[in-house]
Design a protein that fits this description.
There is one protein chain. The chain is of the alpha/beta class. Helices cover 49% and strands 11% of the residues. It has three domains: 271 residues, 2-enoyl-CoA Hydratase, Chain A, domain 1 (Alpha-Beta Complex); 179 residues, Rossmann fold; 181 residues, N-(1-d-carboxylethyl)-l-norvaline Dehydrogenase, domain 2, CATH 1.10.1040. β10, α13 and β11 form a beta-alpha-beta unit. α4 crosses α5, α12 packs across α26 and α20 packs across α25. In the central section; belongs to the 3-hydroxyacyl-CoA dehydrogenase family. It is found in: Peroxisome.
């Protein structure tokens, strides 16, 4: 059929063997759009009516089966709040048309069958897959649950425990794993896939293989007493891992309903819960993050300029410390040849050992296979001079935040590297124009700011100056994707975007400490809000020297809204270095959780005496909500400065920076999306009150004041 959506078709071909081949074509991932769903219904209806059709093989075009429901449609439903717009895929298509149709279907899977794509396949009588095809139900990452029968069929095909693990982890499995578990019936080479699938379908028709309805399979289900134990443990784990995300528990309820009360009851509950969750704040936030991540790949005058990406295959990393070794690790695991340079043999040995330890850690966590680790190590070499730099495609400088040191390095790089080599700095705070001021070719200087640990954290800030070539920005964006990072392009300024969000967060915590609020209560409240660790433990883990160096740059550039507290300096003077020496706000002992150190109270009293920001010297009384707002509203305010100053391409880039840079909970949608859920007027009024009471740190930005006055959301486009 020809659909309204350009390039989208669901076609059917009937061969002499009586097999109807129905093919989904909806580039790039063959998603289930409204047109595709309508096309499937039409072609299945035709196949069922035709006397010359014995059975059906369902597949996808261009080596991809189906990437699931068109997610952009879900966002449209959220905007209207009208769930009746959702197509009835579960009952009308999967159950009534495919599974209960009088003619059997076989799914021929290449590439991937994800989400609704796997649910379509599970509705078929059998599933034949090409090697290494990806299978999974990742819906929970978006705040929803599988909505086309996945909660009911997967447990019956692979067993309850494995199905729960696959859904709650959102991880994919290979077709080979699927064959071992029972969701895949056979593996066939890509060249033989359709032939094998057609034969399997004929075998069902002619009685040589069973016509299986997976919704009513029961051989993989377990006894009632075992079931109780499985779900009790699953709920405990979900509560521990996702305490603020109720859709994980809801998914377990739906799975359990189907097993206890029968699959039809389970399908009805799945449909009801899916629609409720789709309109929840959690799903709105997670879908916003999903689309915001996709938007980062589009930068005007860069990605629309027709550039052809250059290959970046060999990269030099200068500095083998925590950041440099992490960056090098991220590169070698993604097949980039790395030259690690250090100033002497001992530092180089330490750097190379750190990389090997990083790789070993990935191996132990199951994120890297043994053969890939060996290959990664083979791509690594050390250097004590610049001799090998003449052949590299890119250099990433990752030394300490020392301006003169960085300037001398870039001055040297310009002499030794080829004229088309990209010169990047991993600086987190320093203006790139200052770093490159001794060079002449500043068009190839760019910021490539990764976050520690660099081989784990997903964000990469690509910092461009007014002189940075758009082609260089384009190349580094493509490079970020190769090393599996989420890139945001930001304008050159002190501290860029992510650290301009992060430092007010830490300053706000220091402000509350100086107002007499218990620091361990602050950390607890912020963790309950959803941050992985609180701001004072962050200072311990990051290192006081790093924090003070960053604050020095921030306060010099943005003095009018900086809160300078002597707290961290006093911590250092007392012999504390945080996790580095086991003594900070918390006590760190190997093999045990960090414990609050009550003796810090003396230092807190000293810093309060020095700042004297409470008139009568008495601690202020705050609710938990007050603490959350006093910590995060200054971050919102700084985000407004970033948007107003054109530092980011779009407001949603701020949300990505907050989620992937400072680990703001993704289910809130990012810092600005969360702020808009509360309302700019409310945030502005609260900041205004604190500004009057405690000074300029809380002074609302002009952007925030204007948006509050006009009733415009902070993340809304200005056009």
């Amino acid at each position: 059929m020809a659909n309204k959506e350009a390039g989208v078709t669901v076609s059917m071909e009937v061969e002499d063997d009586g097999i109807a081949l129905i093919t989904i074509r909806n580039p790039p991932v063959n998603a289930l759009s409204l047109s595709v769903i309508a096309g499937l219904r039409e072609k299945y209806g035709e196949a069922m009516r035709r006397d010359d059709v014995k059975a059906i093989v369902l597949t996808g075009a261009d080596g991809k089966f189906c990437g699931g429901l068109d997610i952009s449609f879900l966002q449209e439903v959220q905007k209207t709040g009208n769930v009746s717009l959702l197509p009835n895929v579960s009952f009308d298509l999967v159950v009534n048309t495919i599974e209960d149709g009088k003619k059997p279907s076989v799914a021929a899977i290449q590439g991937f069958a994800l989400g609704g794509g796997l649910e379509l396949a599970m509705g078929c009588s059998a599933r034949i897959a090409a090697p290494r095809a990806e299978l999974g139900l990742p819906e929970l990452k978006l705040g929803i649950i599988p909505g086309s029968g996945g909660t009911q069929r997967l447990p019956r095909l692979v067993g309850v425990s494995k199905a729960i693990d696959m859904m709650l982890s959102s991880k994919t499995i290979t077709s080979e794993e699927g064959a071992e578990l029972g969701v895949i019936d056979s593996i066939a080479s890509p060249d033989e896939l359709l032939t094998a699938s057609r034969q399997w379908a004929l075998d069902i028709v002619e009685g040589r293989r069973p016509h299986i309805n997976s919704l009513h399979k029961s051989d993989k289900l377990v006894a009632a007493h075992d079931l109780d134990d499985i779900f009790q443990k699953a709920r405990q784990n979900a509560q521990a891992k996702f305490p603020n995300e109720p859709h994980y528990g809801a998914c377990l309820d739906v799975i359990e309903e189907g097993i206890i009360s029968g699959p039809n009851s389970g399908l009805l509950k799945e449909d009801k819960v899916f629609k409720e969750l789709l309109l929840s704040n959690t799903a709105r936030g997670l879908l916003h993050v999903f689309f915001s991540e996709r938007a980062t790949s589009k930068v005007p005058a860069v990605t629309d300029s027709g550039f052809k990406a250059r290959k970046i295959e060999k990269v030099a990393v200068i500095g083998g410390g925590l950041m440099g070794s992490g960056i090098a690790t991220a590169l070698v695991v993604n097949n980039i040849h790395v030259i690690l340079k250090e100033i002497n043999s001992e530092y180089l040995r330490q750097g190379l050992r750190s990389i090997e330890a990083n790789l070993q850690g990935l191996l132990l966590r199951g994120e890297l296979e043994e053969d890939k680790m060996k290959k990664a190590l083979s791509l690594l070499q050390g250097a004590l001079d610049y001799e090998e730099f003449k052949n590299v495609d890119m250099v990433i400088e990752a030394v300490n935040e020392d301006i003169s040191l960085k300037q001398s390095i870039f001055e040297e790089l310009e002499k030794v590297c080829s004229s088309n080599c990209i010169l990047a700095s991993n600086t987190s705070t320093i203006d790139l124009n200052v770093i490159g001021e001794r060079t002449t070719g500043q068009d190839r200087i760019v910021g490539a700011h990764l976050f520690s640990p660099a081989h784990v954290m997903p964000l990469m800030e690509i910092v461009r100056t007014e002189r940075t070539s758009p082609k260089v920005v384009f190349d580094v964006m493509r490079f970020a994707k190769i090393i599996k990072k989420v890139p945001i392009v930001v304008k050159n300024c002190t501290c860029f975007a992510a650290n301009r969000l992060f430092l007010p967060y830490l300053q706000a915590a220091d402000m509350l400490a100086n107002l007499g609020v218990d620091i361990f209560r602050i950390d607890q409240v912020i963790c309950e809000f959803g941050m992985r660790i609180g701001p004072f433990q962050v200072q311990d883990v990051t290192g006081y020297d790093v924090y003070l160096a960053a604050m020095k740059e921030f306060s010099a550039a943005y003095s009018e809204r900086t809160f300078l507290s002597p707290l961290v300096q006093l911590m250092q003077e007392s012999g504390r270095a945080g996790k580095k020496n086991g003594k900070g706000y918390y006590v760190y002992e190997r093999g045990s959780r960090p414990k609050p150190d009550a003796s810090v109270q003396q230092i807190l009293e000293q810093t309060r005496e020095l700042t004297r920001i409470v008139a009568d010297g008495q601690p202020i009384s705050l609710t938990d909500q007050d603490i959350v707002e006093m910590i995060f509203f200054p971050v919102v305010n700084e985000a407004c400065h970033l948007v107003d100053g054109g530092v980011v391409v779009r407001a949603s880039d701020i949300d990505i920076a907050s989620v992937h840079g400072m680990k703001f909970p993704s289910y809130y949608g990012g810092i600005l999306f969360w702020a808009d859920s509360l309302g700019p007027d409310y945030i502005c009024s609260r900041l205004t009150n604190w500004f009057k009471a405690y000074g300029n740190f809380f002074k609302p930005s002009k952007y925030l004041e204007e948006r509050a006055r006009k009733g415009i959301l902070l993340g809304a486009s200005s056009t």
